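Could you help me review a protein record that somebody else here produced? This is what I was given.
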Amino acid sequence: MSSPIRDVSDTAFWIAWHRALESERPDALFRDPFAARLAGERGKAISEAMPTSTIVAWTVVLRTRIIDDFIAFAIESGTDTILNLGAGLDARPYRMGLPETLRWIEADYPHIIDYKEDSLRAETPHCRLERVKIDLADESARRELLKRVNAEARGVLILTEGVVPYLTNDAVASLAEDLREMRRAHYWIVDYFSEKALRYRQRKRINRAMQNAPFRFRPGDWFAFFSRYGWKLKEVRYFIDEGQRLGRPIPLPRRLQLVMAVSRLFTPKRRLEAMRQFAGYTLLEQETRH
């Protein structure tokens, strides 16, 4: 099966399309009036070709809400700068109610930045928006950017939405160390996938459909991995929990819902807990230096 996704950058169009679909719902959990424009026909085509788009759409909606909440918390806690690494086609500076004084920096490949600037040229962001063309795998350029942002900010939130899973363990370790050197970087938003979730992906068709943009981050003990590099857990929100809280449970076929409801009566509590903690998003906090 040929993959509809040519590289990691294509996932930005795919995810934007799902934000656009959510925005059209009468019970939408958020509104992104720019998502359809940014996703374009490319995003729609990828979504229609992917085998698991219903579940992906569900996680995109929940992760968007979770990240929005984390951002609001960080701003209330004194964050004056948000650094969005691998920003893709995110439109939060335009769609969220943000302080005018907030500095928002988007960093991504030049072709993504060019496309985004052209698409949103007539729009006005709600905060001070800056875009940086960069290959974040270039460690020298990345460290130069991080050093500059750190010097100019009082409190920084790092956002890496849909970035870390595509990196190797060594690449994530290098990024974590670089962010740790930013004394003003107080918080970091990161995707969370349990080891069970990663094994599940390997068995399913989504891995073949994502062959040009595979998940490569396999840390084993996810929370211990980041703790080793000075980043402790502030909060984790699991998709299952958020879906229940927001009235948007996982969209399983009716037959499978009945099977799962019955199986819960006989499934050990430890296994049920592992299912609940399958995947989600985390807010990490830089550990205090002594």
User: Anything to note?
Assistant: The first strand starts at residue 81 and ends at 85. Residues 10-286 form a domain with the Rossmann fold fold (CATH 3.40.50.150). The chain has one domain: 10-286.
